[in-house]
Amino acid sequence: MVSSHFILAATGLAAVASAAYNPTCSNNIVTYWGQNSWGGGHLDDPANWEKDLASYCQDDTFDIINLSFVTNYNLTGLPVLNHAFHCETKFNGTNTLTCPDIGADIKTCQAKGKKIVLSLGGGGIYSYSLSTAAEGKQFADTVWNMFLGGSHQYRPYDDAVLDGVDLDIESGAHDGYVAFVNQLRTYFNGASKKYIISAAPQCVFPDANLGTTLSGAWIDNDYVQFYNNPCNLANINNQWNFDYKSWDTLTKANSNPNSKMYVGLPAGSGAAGNGYLDLNTLQANLKQLYTNYTSTFGGIMLWDASWYSNNQAYVSSLAGWVRANMKCGAAVAPAPISSAPAAAPTV
Ligand SMILES: *[C@@H]1O[C@H](CO)[C@@H](O)[C@H](O)[C@H]1NC(C)=O
Ligand SMILES: *[C@@H]1O[C@H](CO)[C@@H](O)[C@H](O)[C@H]1NC(C)=O
Ligand SMILES: *[C@@H]1O[C@H](CO)[C@@H](O)[C@H](O)[C@H]1NC(C)=O
Ligand SMILES: CC(=O)N[C@H]1CO[C@H](CO)[C@@H](O)[C@@H]1O
């Protein structure tokens, strides 16, 4: 890490202006840590696998990092986590990881202004569901006590207090999620710390697993995955495949008047099934979306942190470009592009 950061500094690629998450800005950058997606395709090259969490908090690239993830809610016992090779020790007599080193890294990251959020769900073989409001409420109590501001005998990250929860729900019964969010918000409303609730739907609209949660629950950030699907960002000009407007409308209709949408992108050519674009095309496409939908544009999300180390020039230039071109405060109108009329600043 040290030498690669030296190279970055020397070439000036990390020309990024702000490091801290600001919900009123359009230039926040989110990533996901804990699954080592690069390593999955490079099993024989552990030297380049995903680094420690704190390694991704040493510079200004990321504002929010999703700790992925809770794979089994285990409502009758303790929730089960997976962090690939990063942490494999369990509390005695349980199936729940104890990761005090990650807890220390969480605090290091938070001290640098980053938000570290717990991601629930994920793709693959995992099993999780919240089928009733009662289950949602109960699980919210567990999450609050084990990971957020409450207290519990088993805290996987020790006394580190995470900054919120990310719903990456790709399967299972989902009728209990609105109650889950509502119950968490009763805790959040009594706390001085500002917590985040986010979700990571696929770009196909509406999302089969998250749709009713996104329309019925308070959401701060929506990280829409514009990859792995026909609606990936390469199809921005194909109205049959690319439906950003519906996402924008859904975001504006959220009970949170400041709900934001993030453009989810692959951080490397092999990071997701499709949607990886060269920087020039990507920047032109992002500029269109930011120009047309400024008031809901929160920033970008990159899948995942393991690609940062292995595609660093791309990720760093993209981050620098987003910081420089996407602004803070809805009243800052972007420069118009092509022949589009200049949009009046929205207030
Ligand atoms: C549910 O939690 C209990 C207590 O931690 C544990 O013994 C059990 O293995 C967990 N179930 C699963 C499926 O991991
Ligand atoms: C589990 O129990 C063993 C034996 O008592 C002890 O050495 C170890 O530290 C315990 N591990 C945890 C994570 O509590
Ligand atoms: C953005 O607005 C311009 C001008 O109205 C339009 O030509 C373009 O298709 C829009 N792009 C998207 C992705 O909405
Ligand atoms: C938006 C997004 O990529 N969310 C991710 C959060 O973490 C889980 C687990 O690794 C991923 O599956 C999600 O895709």
TrEMBL record:
<dbReference type="GO" id="GO:0008843">
    <property type="term" value="F:endochitinase activity"/>
</dbReference>
<dbReference type="GO" id="GO:0005576">
    <property type="term" value="C:extracellular region"/>
</dbReference>
<dbReference type="GO" id="GO:0006032">
    <property type="term" value="P:chitin catabolic process"/>
</dbReference>
<keyword id="KW-0378">Hydrolase</keyword>
<keyword id="KW-0732">Signal</keyword>
<dbReference type="InterPro" id="IPR017853">
    <property type="entry name" value="GH"/>
</dbReference>
<dbReference type="GO" id="GO:0000272">
    <property type="term" value="P:polysaccharide catabolic process"/>
</dbReference>
<keyword id="KW-0326">Glycosidase</keyword>
<keyword id="KW-0119">Carbohydrate metabolism</keyword>
<keyword id="KW-0624">Polysaccharide degradation</keyword>
<dbReference type="InterPro" id="IPR045321">
    <property type="entry name" value="Cts1-like"/>
</dbReference>
<feature type="signal peptide">
    <location>
        <begin position="1"/>
        <end position="19"/>
    </location>
</feature>
<keyword id="KW-0146">Chitin degradation</keyword>
<dbReference type="InterPro" id="IPR050542">
    <property type="entry name" value="Glycosyl_Hydrlase18_Chitinase"/>
</dbReference>
<dbReference type="Pfam" id="PF00704">
    <property type="entry name" value="Glyco_hydro_18"/>
</dbReference>
<feature type="domain" description="GH18">
    <location>
        <begin position="27"/>
        <end position="321"/>
    </location>
</feature>
<protein>
    <recommendedName>
        <fullName>chitinase</fullName>
        <ecNumber>3.2.1.14</ecNumber>
    </recommendedName>
</protein>
<dbReference type="InterPro" id="IPR001223">
    <property type="entry name" value="Glyco_hydro18_cat"/>
</dbReference>
<comment type="similarity">
    <text>Belongs to the glycosyl hydrolase 18 family.</text>
</comment>
<dbReference type="InterPro" id="IPR001579">
    <property type="entry name" value="Glyco_hydro_18_chit_AS"/>
</dbReference>
